[in-house]
Every structure is written in structure tokens, then in C-alpha cells.
Specification:
The complex is a heterodimer of chains A (268) and B (56). Chain A has 268 residues and is of the alpha+beta class. Helix content of chain A is 41%, strand content 23%. A two-stranded antiparallel ribbon of chain B has the order 1-2. In chain B, a hairpin with a 2-residue loop joins strand 1 and strand 2. The chains are: A alpha+beta (268), B alpha+beta (56). Chains A and B meet through strand 2, strand 3, strand 6 and strand 7 of A and helix 2, strand 1 and strand 2 of B. Chain A: Keywords: Membrane, Transmembrane, Transmembrane helix.
């Protein structure tokens, strides 16, 4: 028996944990590095695999006439020369039972990982408890779910609008782009690649006073800004509720902020 | 004869969208909304009124 067979056998034993972890990390909440280290992944799969195998062995031993022959399994893993023939003969005798056991185990592992992820999301455990937080930190920032982190006032569910200011350096000049959040893109390492804005406007940062006629309205509904140009990003999470004019109090009426679509379409 | 199925799911998503003028208007006046105050402010976009509060 050679090392390759032992490696394949170990991989099959660790596969349930590997499958469960992949299913858990299958959403956009997790960073999936295509160049990841397989040995590292398998190492992290040991404990989930042990748990799943234990669970299945208990079910198998208590509900069927089959059982796991650990002596033969140990012979196969360790490559005991004088017993390998008998072990392989036994594998041949029970090949269909072993195949079906593993098929059910792998399928259950996939759905277990998926269901655990869904449970964490359903009960917002990733927002409340740092340990459950997924690896893509940008998701919590761009969606505003970071409002549900401990010690942060207000709640994610209150958000109706997200306004983003992106400070960029273009041709040596600092430009502030403002728009509604539309989407964001990350690379395989989880670094920000680009920000996608809706209804973008811009102004040069040299004009840093808050004044009218300084913002240029970009004649496009969507704008993508690559991360290579970005210096920093400012996020504003807003709760916006439509009201009747009669509901406005006198003090609110004094400080009302107005925008007329009839005004200059290029500059505001 | 064949029946052309209408994309029902798309219609329900579309219904949740707001008029683009509101979003565009909000972007253009966002810099006037105070980040310091926790009190809501009233904004008028076109002929519609909104009470806006910055969260966080």
C-alpha cells in the first residue's frame, strides 16, 4: 500500500467537514480565495468531520445491522502490509453499503453547513456576536448591518437609504463623488475592488465649503469607481419617511431643506 | 397558440422601487442634512415631503 492511497482515504474521511465548511462559506458574506491552501482547509475540517462521523456512526450502529470496522479502517490508513489483502476484500464485499453511507454523509454535511449559515443569519448571530461574523467585512459596512453591532445606536432595519461619499484622487486632484449605494465588488482576498453608485454627483475637494453651485451632476444613473482611485469612503445611513405637508411642525418648516427638480440640471 | 408568460417576480421587485427622482434628489441634498443632530429633518423633493434622520 502506498502513501497516495492513505492520502485519498484521509481526504474521504475529512471530506464531510470540508463539504460542510464550503457550504457554510458559500455566500457573498464569505471571502473565497481561489488560491487557498488545501492542507490548511483540511486541517480546519478535522473537528467538523469528527462531529459528523460520530453523529452518523451512532445512527448507523443503533438503527441498522451495519457497523464501522475500525480495525480494518486502521489497517487501511496505517498500511499494515500483511492485513491489507483482507481489508480490501472486505471493502469489496461492502462496497455498495460504504458508497451509500458516504453519499448520505456528504449530502447531509452540505446541508448541515448550509443550514448552520442560514440559522446564523436568521437569528442575526453574526451581527450580535463577533465570533459568528463572516469574513467579508465590507458586507456589514456597505449594507449597514454594522448598525446592529453591539454598542452602535439604531438598527439596520431602520435604514431606507444609503448615501456614500467617495474621495478619489484623479489626475492629482481630489474629487468627492456622492451617490446612492448600489453595489460593491471585492477580490478573492476580500479587498475592495470597486464601488458602484447610483445617481452620482461630484465636486472638487478644493471647494470644501458647503455651498450651492459646487456639485456637478454626472449625466449617468450609475457610476463605478475602482478602488485604485479611492482615498477613503464616507457612509451615511438614513431613515427616510414620507409625510404630509400638514404634519410638518413650525420649527421643522423653518429649517426645511428643499430640492427642486426644475433647478439647473448640471450644477446644484 | 401559445401564451406569453409575464415575469411576475420582476414586477414585484419593481413595485418596491421608488421613483428615481426621489433618490436622485436625496443625493443632491444629502450634504445639507446634518450629521451632528439626531433630530429628524424635513426635506422637500419636488412636491413631496420626507422626514429624514441619519442613523448610527
Amino acid at each position: 500500500m502506498n502513501i497516495a492511497f492513505t492520502t485519498i482515504l484521509l481526504f474521504i474521511i475529512l471530506a464531510p467537514g470540508f463539504t460542510a465548511r464550503n457550504a457554510y462559506n458559500s455566500s457573498k458574506l464569505s471571502i473565497i480565495d481561489r488560491n487557498r491552501n488545501l492542507v490548511n482547509d483540511l486541517t480546519w475540517s478535522i473537528i467538523p468531520s469528527l462531529a459528523l462521523h460520530t453523529f452518523f456512526i451512532v445512527i448507523l450502529h443503533n438503527t441498522t445491522n451495519y457497523y464501522i470496522d475500525f480495525e480494518q479502517l486502521g489497517n487501511l490508513i496505517l498500511g499494515v502490509a500483511n492485513k491489507s489483502e483482507a481489508s480490501f476484500r472486505q471493502l469489496g464485499d461492502y462496497k455498495y453499503a460504504i458508497f451509500i453511507y458516504n453519499l448520505i454523509l456528504f449530502t447531509t454535511s452540505f446541508f448541515a453547513g448550509f443550514l448552520i449559515k442560514e440559522t446564523v443569519r436568521k437569528f442575526n448571530l453574526d451581527r450580535k456576536i463577533r465570533y459568528f461574523r463572516f469574513s467579508n467585512k465590507w458586507h456589514y459596512i456597505f449594507t449597514g448591518e454594522c448598525l446592529d453591532f453591539p454598542d452602535v445606536p439604531d438598527h439596520y432595519e431602520e435604514i431606507t437609504d444609503k448615501i456614500i461619499n467617495v474621495l478619489c484622487k484623479v489626475n492629482g486632484r481630489n474629487i468627492l463623488y456622492t451617490g446612492e449605494y448600489f453595489n460593491y465588488y471585492i477580490d478573492s482576498k476580500g479587498d475592495l475592488e470597486a464601488v458602484h453608485l447610483r445617481n452620482p454627483i461630484r465636486r472638487y475637494l478644493e471647494n470644501d465649503e458647503v455651498s450651492d453651485q459646487k456639485y456637478y451632476v454626472i449625466s449617468s444613473r450609475y457610476l463605478v469607481i475602482p478602488n485604485s482611485d479611492i482615498i477613503n469612503i464616507n457612509f451615511r445611513y438614513l431613515a427616510m419617511q414620507e409625510i404630509d405637508e400638514a404634519d410638518i411642525t413650525p420649527s421643522e418648516r423653518e429649517n426645511i431643506i428643499e430640492f427642486d427638480s426644475d433647478q439647473d440640471p448640471l450644477y446644484i | 397558440m401559445s401564451k406569453i408568460e409575464q415575469p411576475k417576480e420582476k414586477a414585484s421587485i419593481k413595485a418596491s422601487y421608488r421613483a428615481p427622482e426621489i433618490g436622485s434628489g436625496l443625493v443632491r441634498i444629502a450634504h445639507k442634512i446634518s450629521s451632528i443632530s439626531s433630530e429628524p429633518q424635513v426635506v422637500r423633493i419636488g412636491d413631496r415631503y420626507f422626514r429624514v434622520r441619519e442613523l448610527g
